[in-house]
């Protein structure tokens, strides 16, 4: 098929319009270079790939000067031909987006176009009822077909190009011969005929009209073969599928119906559009139907697998027509918003819907071997095979079903019926096995994973625990005062299930110990009846949901509500924790499923469903999320397990999100849209916040965090802050840090995202880093912690735990707790750190805070408590070295003073001690490696031990004693200097050492000036005194001249005289007037000005050191803690991350010192004690009631057995 010629831009009618195209994607070679994983970090690779794919799937827009009404595409896919509401006919080149031809038909709106005869001919018709035939190459009008009395709505052409079929508001369907002017009326509708199509074999026509009828016309017999009346409003589009397998029709209400053509049996009804259907098209495989509508969207329907449709959104006005490219890779659409859009044909994910239940689904569960899925309505249980997601069979029940759960043996399910009976079902059984008749109506049932128990909750407010083997009652708990709706087991501990949890209409949660026959009520409650509960895989968290859609997250060890989530608006129907515990799923009757991050408890994304979700389940390998929607089972491909690119979010408006991200990437000034933050891109598990951090958009990040947008780690392990850190975007980092600081106490789990980044944050030394460290150590609000302890208990007590909040047993024994004594305050950190002394991560963290440019972090409570805790133990590691060095100094002093450097045994002892210290230095050098050279004290140590070995060697080898003594002097000097560093071990002298070090640093400039003035006056004295001696020699004899020459001193002695003058030592004998003048200036400048300058410098140094004493003290401690931890090399790989928890004596502020305030505090404490007593009394009363309930249950069983025996005898 030949291509039409390329026209030059013509100025016909409206001026031709050039449309600016957006920046195109890079060529293949450039993309391959970008995506080379050896060149980039994984997050860059992921973001670039996601951006490239979104760019590919984002529609390409062509802006037209007219409101589009109909569209045709040339066979080469290079040119668009469209008609407009304004009555203009135009041609646009697809690649350049340039209007090549534009004419005004002057007949009103153009409703329909048809290209035929190998793109040589073009038909156009519309409001005036005339069908015009143009030569497409020249746009010359060749023929007009007149006959319709009203507007023509659609025309089609036969395969051979000889026949034209048209429909009109005049209620007629006509056929025209291309070579004749007159048309033939084939048949009528009762009202306007709006659409038409023909079968591939050319034997049938299908039409739709305002009379709500779809008519099938046989062209061979020229009779109306059938009339379909299933649609309830005007039919605006009809279509034959390939090979005439199906007929599709869409009406003005947005409803699409499909019939099988052979039998004309209604095959499927598709609901989704909200306004008139404007066009329909099947793909060649007859698996997909594409529709457009006045609701501004196109939708793609899978008519085989019953998948949820894909929505193409981008037009902002009625979509009037579209075409599918011949290779089915693109969709071209036109709308009244002056746009022609080119869409990449999207693909469906692996999700699908199935239907087997006859009533709304209530419960879902699966076999433990992941072979079968069970969905139950009120009357029956449908069984599905999971490997192919196909219906397998139905388990018929004699009574209505009230509860169901998976059997722990993996072979079937356990069902409870309205007649109070408990039955076991196996897939292969035709009938269930009766096990037990409960004494009242069962609302929920659960089987323990260890296979020991079956537990039921009933309308009589009881939790009954049956032994699964013989169904004898093991425990009965009667703690609720309303119907029980949910019962769950905790995860097995050592292979056994002991903990049980229940919630019901009384809005409270109880915890039971089956082995100990005890129960406990969680403090706090819901505002509405509890509908669902689930325990995390580590038994630390409990998630509960109620009938109003509120979710509460409980910490089971602390027994407190950590977080309340108010995202859903209707009953919570399902909760699921992922296997890696990184996320959890929630489902609700508000027709949505939400995914949450279990580290920060922030919503990752929200998926809207067509119908309310009545049940949620996840297959064992987590490949699919299974939802019950009315009577359908929706197998949703798990976004967390897919390997394909897909976008999940609230609704199916994927294109709005993609366009938003593309605008963000192209122009960072795009306004922030909080709704776009809730979408997730798979398989990378990234969202808009990752792009904000990558593109350095702190304003967008701030707005996103303020609106509680999802902040989480991608699949490759990168969070937005890690991206910002890697790219060194300080503004983005500061925004994230500030946001976390404000939310720490409300949600301390948000700090978990910084665990991997804290070292980099320390090395950057951001300005708000000290505020962050100050915020992550806060006072706990746990009311269950003790308020007082025995006065003999030593406080503070520090504990490191894997659990976030402090627990009483970690700090005190039962006997140490009292109702009076020392008031207590508990503090907890929100940041997990490896604090195991000597571990690799602990050393890395300590090194990072030591090198942190923001030294104010050493003022924060968190850093101080951590360093002081470590120093409390590590000082005993460094103390032996200090003692050894002290013994070394004593031996050296005694050797030098008492024995006058002549005592061989003592010298041998010095040699041995020095050898020990040298071995320690070598050991330290091996452990610390390159960081050993960063400590100046190590250079002094190396010099000291070298001088010691040199002196001992000289002494033992008989070297000149004079030189040996000089080496000894140097050794003693270096030894004493190194000894100063050990005063850092003690709190009272550590400050003085720091003052001495800072003073020496600040004296550098002073020493330069002092050296300069000393040298200057030495030079003056040298010249002045030598001249005096020389001139004196001229008046003397030759002998006296020789004596005068001998009296001249070297220049070095004058330097000493000038230096001594600075210290107040001088000799003014034989000074004349000139010498006194020089002396005056020298004495003023050196002794007076210089020394006063030194005093001023030292005063400033003292003030500064005093002001920064706290920081300097902690820095010294940190350095010594690092030195101590390096020695604990055996613990390098034994680190674990824990939370810091502290119990202190409660500090009373100045406002608490009045008698009235003390009395108020005392009254409050008495009230707390009273409340605690009442609570304990209620718990004991409940335990007694449980015991009585157990006895009553046994009596009920015995009564039932007696009745059964009586019936048997009768």
From TrEMBL:
Q: Where are the WD repeats?
A: 145-186, 186-227, 228-269, 270-303, 312-344, 523-556, 565-606
Membrane topology recorded in Swiss-Prot or TrEMBL: Multi-pass membrane protein
Tell me where it mainly resides.
Answer: membrane
CDD domains the UniProt entry points to: WD40
Boundaries of every Ion transport domain copy? 883-1109
Q: Does the keyword Isomerase apply?
A: no
Q: Which residues form a coiled coil?
A: none
Mind telling me which residue stretches traverse the membrane in this protein?
Answer: 876-900, 906-927, 963-985, 1006-1024, 1076-1097
- Give GO terms: molecular function aspect only: monoatomic ion channel activity
Q: Where in the cell is it found?
A: Membrane
**Which InterPro entries does the annotation name?**
Ion_trans_dom (IPR005821), WD40/YVTN_repeat-like_dom_sf (IPR015943), WD40_PAC1 (IPR020472), WD40_repeat_CS (IPR019775), WD40_repeat_dom_sf (IPR036322), WD40_rpt (IPR001680)
**Keywords, alphabetical:** Membrane, Repeat, Transmembrane, Transmembrane helix, WD repeat
**Any one GO CC term of the record:** membrane
Pfam families, alphabetized:
Ion_trans (PF00520), WD40 (PF00400)
Official protein name in the record: Ion transport domain-containing protein
Q: Which organism is it from?
A: Stentor coeruleus
């Amino acid at each position: 098929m030949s291509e039409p010629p390329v026209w030059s831009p013509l100025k016909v009618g409206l001026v031709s319009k050039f449309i600016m195209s957006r920046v195109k994607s890079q060529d293949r070679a450039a993309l391959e270079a970008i995506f080379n994983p050896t060149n980039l970090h994984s997050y860059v690779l992921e973001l670039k790939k996601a951006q490239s794919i979104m760019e590919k799937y984002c529609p390409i827009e062509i802006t037209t000067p007219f409101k589009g009404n109909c569209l045709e595409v040339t066979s080469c896919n290079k040119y668009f031909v469209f008609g407009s509401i304004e009555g203009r006919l135009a041609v646009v080149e697809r690649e350049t987006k340039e209007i090549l031809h534009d004419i005004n038909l002057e007949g009103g709106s153009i409703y329909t176009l048809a290209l035929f005869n190998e793109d040589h001919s073009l038909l156009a018709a519309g409001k005036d009822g005339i069908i015009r035939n143009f030569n497409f190459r020249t746009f010359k009008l060749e023929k007009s077909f007149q006959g319709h009395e009203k507007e023509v709505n659609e025309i089609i052409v036969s395969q051979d190009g000889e026949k034209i079929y048209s429909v009109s508001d005049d209620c007629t369907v006509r056929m025209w011969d291309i070579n004749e002017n007159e048309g033939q009326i084939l048949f009528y509708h009762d009202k306007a005929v709006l659409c038409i199509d023909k079968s591939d074999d050319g034997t049938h026509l299908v039409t739709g009209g305002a009379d709500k009828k779809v008519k099938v016309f046989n062209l061979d017999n020229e009779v109306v073969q059938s009339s379909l009346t299933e649609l309830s409003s005007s039919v605006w589009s009809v279509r034959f599928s390939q090979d005439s397998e199906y007929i599709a029709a869409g009406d003005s209400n947005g409803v699409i119906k499909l019939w099988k053509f052979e039998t004309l049996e209604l095959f499927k009804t598709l609901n989704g559009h909200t306004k008139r259907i404007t066009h329909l098209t099947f793909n060649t495989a007859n698996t997909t139907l594409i529709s457009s509508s006045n609701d501004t969207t196109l939708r793609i329907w899978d008519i085989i697998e019953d998948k949820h449709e894909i929505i193409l959104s981008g037009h902002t006005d009625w979509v009037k027509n579209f075409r599918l490219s011949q290779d089915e890779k693109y969709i071209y659409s036109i709308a009244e918003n002056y746009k022609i859009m080119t869409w990449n044909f999207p693909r469906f994910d692996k999700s699908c819907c199935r239907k087997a239940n006859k009533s709304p689904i209530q419960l879902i569960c699966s076999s433990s071997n992941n072979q079968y899925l069970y969905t139950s309505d009120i009357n029956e249980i449908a069984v599905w095979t999971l490997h192919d997601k196909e219906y397998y069979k139905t388990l018929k029940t004699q009574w209505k079903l009230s509860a169901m759960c998976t059997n722990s043996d993996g072979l079937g399910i356990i069902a409870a019926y309205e007649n109070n009976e408990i039955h076991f079902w196996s897939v292969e059984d035709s009938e269930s096995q009766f096990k037990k008749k409960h004494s009242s109506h069962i609302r929920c049932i659960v089987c323990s994973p260890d296979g020991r128990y079956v537990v039921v909750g009933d309308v009589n407010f009881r939790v009954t625990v049956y032994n699964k083997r013989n169904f004898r009652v093991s425990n009965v708990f009667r703690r609720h005062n309303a119907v029980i709706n949910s019962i769950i087991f905790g995860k097995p501990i050592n292979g056994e299930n002991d903990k049980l949890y229940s919630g019901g209409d009384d809005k409270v949660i109880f915890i039971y110990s089956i082995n100990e026959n005890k129960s406990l009520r969680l403090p706090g409650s819901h505002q509405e009846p509890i509908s669902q509960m689930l325990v995390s895989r580590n038994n630390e968290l409990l998630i509960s949901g109620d009938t109003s859609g509120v979710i509460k997250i409980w910490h089971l060890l602390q027994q407190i509500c950590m977080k309340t989530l108010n995202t859903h608006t209707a009953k919570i129907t399902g909760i699921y924790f992922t296997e890696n515990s990184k996320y959890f799923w929630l489902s609700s009757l508000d027709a949505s499923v939400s995914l949450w991050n279990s580290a920060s408890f922030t919503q990752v994304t929200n998926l809207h469903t067509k119908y309310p979700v009545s049940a949620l389940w996840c297959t064992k390998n987590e490949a699919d999320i299974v939802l019950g929607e009315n009577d359908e089972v929706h197998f949703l491909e798990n976004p967390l397990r897919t390997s394909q690119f897909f976008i999940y979010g609230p609704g199916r408006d994927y294109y709005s999100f993609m366009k938003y991200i593309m605008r963000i990437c192209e122009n960072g000034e795009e306004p922030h849209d909080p709704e776009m933050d809730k979408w997730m891109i798979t398989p990378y598990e990234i969202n808009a916040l990752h792009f904000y951090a990558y593109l350095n958009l702190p304003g967008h990040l701030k707005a996103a965090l303020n609106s509680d947008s999802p902040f989480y780690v991608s699949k490759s392990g990168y969070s937005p802050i890690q991206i910002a850190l890697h790219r060194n975007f300080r503004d983005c980092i500061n925004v994230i840090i500030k946001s976390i600081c404000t939310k720490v106490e409300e949600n301390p789990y948000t700090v978990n995202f910084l665990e991997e980044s804290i070292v980099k944050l320390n090395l950057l030394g951001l300005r708000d880093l000290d505020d962050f460290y100050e915020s992550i150590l806060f006072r706990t609000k746990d009311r269950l912690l003790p308020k007082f302890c025995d006065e003999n208990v030593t406080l503070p007590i520090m504990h490191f735990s894997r659990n976030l909040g402090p627990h009483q047993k970690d700090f005190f024994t039962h006997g140490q707790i009292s109702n009076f004594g020392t008031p207590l305050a508990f503090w907890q950190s929100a940041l997990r750190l490896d604090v195991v002394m000597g571990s690799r991560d602990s050393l890395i963290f300590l090194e990072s805070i030591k090198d942190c440019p923001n030294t104010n972090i050493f003022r924060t409570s968190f850093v101080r408590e951590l360093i002081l805790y470590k120093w409390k133990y590590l000082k005993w590691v460094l103390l032996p070295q200090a003692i050894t060095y002290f013994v070394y100094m004593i031996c050296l002093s005694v050797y030098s003073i008492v024995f006058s450097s002549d005592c061989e045994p003592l010298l041998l002892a010095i040699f041995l001690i020095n050898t020990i210290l040298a071995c320690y230095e070598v050991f330290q050098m091996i452990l610390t490696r390159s960081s050993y050279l960063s400590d100046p004290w190590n250079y002094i140590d190396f010099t000291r031990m070298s001088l010691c070995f040199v002196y001992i060697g000289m002494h033992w080898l008989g070297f000149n004693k004079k030189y040996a003594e000089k080496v000894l002097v140097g050794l003693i000097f270096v030894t004493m200097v190194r000894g100063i560093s050990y005063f850092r071990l003690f709190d009272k002298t550590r400050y003085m050492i720091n003052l001495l070090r800072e003073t020496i640093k600040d004296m550098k400039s002073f020493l330069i000036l002092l050296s300069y003035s000393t040298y200057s006056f030495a030079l003056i004295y040298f010249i002045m005194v030598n001249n005096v001696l020389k001139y004196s020699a001229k008046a003397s004899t030759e002998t006296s001249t020789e004596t005068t020459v001998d009296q001249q001193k070297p220049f070095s002695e004058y330097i000493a005289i000038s230096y001594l003058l600075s210290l107040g030592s001088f000799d003014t004998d034989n000074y004349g007037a000139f010498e006194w003048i020089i002396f005056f200036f020298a004495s003023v400048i050196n002794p007076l000005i210089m020394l006063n300058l030194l005093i001023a410098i030292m005063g400033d140094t003292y003030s500064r050191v005093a002001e920064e004493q706290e920081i300097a003290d902690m820095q010294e401690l940190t350095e010594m803690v690092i030195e101590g931890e390096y020695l604990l090399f055996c613990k390098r790989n034994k680190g674990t991350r824990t939370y810091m928890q502290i119990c202190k004596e409660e500090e009373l502020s100045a406002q608490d010192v009045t008698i009235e305030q003390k009395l108020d505090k005392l009254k409050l404490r008495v009230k707390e004690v009273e409340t605690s007593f009442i609570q304990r009394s209620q718990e004991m009363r409940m335990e007694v009631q449980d015991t009585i309930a157990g006895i009553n249950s046994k009596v009920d069983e015995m009564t039932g057995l007696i009745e059964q025996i009586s019936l048997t005898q009768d």
